[in-house]
Every structure is written in C-alpha cells, then in structure tokens.
Amino acid sequence: MKKLIPLLCLMAGFSQSAAASDFSALSLLSQAEFQTLSEDFGSAMSYKPVSPTAPLGGGLIPVGIDIGIEATSTDISKSGAILLKATNNAVDIKSMIIPKLHIAVGIPFGIDVAAFTSVVPSTSIKLTGAELRVALLKGGVAYPSIGIRGAMTKMSGVDELAFDTKSIDLSISKGFLMLTPYAGVGQVWVNSKASVAGTDGALDTSFTQSKVFVGANLNLGITNFALEGDKTGGTTSYSFKMGFRW
Asked: In the chain, N or C terminus with fewer CB closer than 10 Å?
C-alpha cells in the first residue's frame, strides 16, 4: 500500500492542476469538426479493462480484489487543433493522458465488478466508469478464461458538453505462471452533445466504434502490473496499471 501513496498524491496533484478549460467556443466548430473531436474523445474515454479475463473470485478465496493506479495515453492528434479551437486555445495537447484510480472486486459465480475515477490533466474534465464482467468459462490449467463485459463511462466537469460511452466486449486470457496475456473485441456506443449558445442543438452526435485490445498482466505477488494496447475506432490508446491483485 505504501507504493500507492505517492501515486495517489500524484492523482491529487492532477486534480488541483486541472484548470477550468473553457469549452464555450464549441459553437465555433462545424458538425464535421465536432464529430472528429467526439470520435477521439470516444476512443480516449471509453472503458479500458487493463485486466485479464480470469475472474477474481472463486476457489479457496471466494472474493478477490484488484486495485491500482492506471494511466491511459491516447493519440488525439487528429483532433488536437479542433480541441484548441473549442477551448479558446486553452488546451493544446496531441495525446490525452488519463490517470485513474481503478478498483475491481470479484465475487462468487465468476462475476467481477469494477469502477474508476479520473481527472484529466490540463482540463476541467472528470471521468468515471464502471463495468460488470461475467465469466463464460472460468479457465484452468488446460484451458483459457472467456468472459463478457458491459461497461460505461461518463464525463463531468464540462458544463458545455454532455458526453458518455457504453460498451460491450468479449475477451479471453490464459495464465502462464505469473504472466497472463489477454485479448478482446467489442463495440462502443458514444453520445456527445454540446450545450452552448449558437449551436441550436446542431452539435449532437451518437455513433458506434469497433474495439480491439490486447494486453498482459504480471503478478509478482506483492505487486501487480498490467499493460494494454487498445484500438477504438481509428485511434490507438496504451494503458499501464500498477497495484495489487489477489
């Protein structure tokens, strides 16, 4: 737990440094620009499991826990200039870094529930998310784990933009000693709507994005590490998590 304290302080620092970026200039965007920005936001802010498929609960220990500090980096260079325009030149970034405090709990019957909270540096964006995962096959020495997950994320902290995602995915993982590779495919539903004068409801879009991800989890007993690559829509994200999993 001591190793997590500095990272929790880092999260607090991000929260304090998240200047209230002004999204009131969203009205200057065309529908095409708003769509591009929303697609990149969907890729960056949709749920990232950063965890193998194998359920946490079961066996001799009916309840399992995975807690960690996580960071996701998404290439939003495609919409970087649009974001700069939408925020009155307040946010000039090509990669969106989203630090998260992520907690998952495994309960009997192969069910895992998880949630995260985040503040995006250099913006007023706050992000929360949750998942429910059910093991279709719990896995064992000779066969993999297979699971289906439903998840959602919701953005807050930006009065001018209502944004949320919902997703479903099917994933598989197989442990080899301390290392557990995993992979999955899914679909993301994005809802994005601007609420600023001058748009007259025009900047309002809902769409779907395909999703594919691969990753690996390394459990050293005392410390757990996970690394994941994700492509949602046409945009790539990389996530890293450090914490404890048992």
From this structure: N
- Of 173, 181, 109, 107, which is closest to residue 146 (Cα–Cα)? 173
Domain harbouring 124, CATH code: 2.40.160.20
| Structural domain range at position 63 | 4-245
Per residue in 148-192, pLDDT (tens digit) is 999 999 999 999 999 999 999 999 999 999 999 999 999 999 999
Distance CA 225, CA 172 (A): 18
Give the rounded distance of the alpha carbon of 200 from its chain centre: 31
Q: Domain tally for the chain?
A: 1
Is the CB of residue 191 less than 8 Å from the CB of residue 46?
Answer: no
Full-model pTM: 0.89
Nearest alpha-carbon partner for 42 in 150, 164, 184, 132: 164
Residue keyed to tokens 């880092």: 10
**What Cα–Cα distance (Å) separates residue 232 from each residue in 17, 89, 208?**
28, 27, 10
Tokens encoding 37: 């920005």
Q: Which residue from 163, 216, 215, 171 is spatially nearest to 190, judged by alpha carbons?
A: 163
pLDDT digits (tens, 9 = 90+) for 17-27: 444 467 889 99
Alpha helix ranges (H) inside 70-155: 80-86
Return phi, psi of residue 223, to 5°: -125, 145
